Amino acid sequence: MDELEARVLECFANVFPGIPRERLPRLNQAASAEWDSVMHVTLLAALGEEFGFEIDFEAAEELRSFALVSDYVRDHAGR
Amino acid sequence: MSLKLNEALKLAQASSPGAAQRRAFLACGFEPLHLPVFLRAHHELRFPAQGLEVSTGVYGDLPGNLERARQSPASTCFVLIEWHDLDPRLGVRSTGPWSRLRQAEIAREVAQRLERLRQGLERLSGQMQVVLAPPSIEFGLSADTTGWQASSFELELQLLLSQFLASVAGDARRKVLHAARLAARSPAASRADARMELLAGFPYSLEHASQVAEALVWLAYPDPPKKGLITDLDETLWAGIVGELGADGVKWSLGDKAQLHGLYQSVLRQLHEAGVLLGVASKNDPEVVAAALARSDLHLDRDVFFPVAASWGPKSDAVSAILRAWNIAADAVVVVDDSRMELEEIRRQHPGITCLEFRPRDVSATLELLGQLRDVFGKPSVNEEDRLRSASIRGLAQFEEQKQASDLGSFLAGLAGEVSVQSAKQGADGRVLELINKTNQFNLNGGRVEAGAWQRFLARDDSFVLGVSYGDRFGPLGTIGVVAGTRANGLLHVEHWVLSCRAFSRRIEDHMLQVLFEGQEQVSLAFRRTERNQPFREFLARLGLAEQQGGGELARALVLGREQLARVSADLPHRVLKRSDGVSDG
Question: Is residue B129 within 8 Å of residue B173, measured between CB atoms?
Answer without folding.
Answer: yes
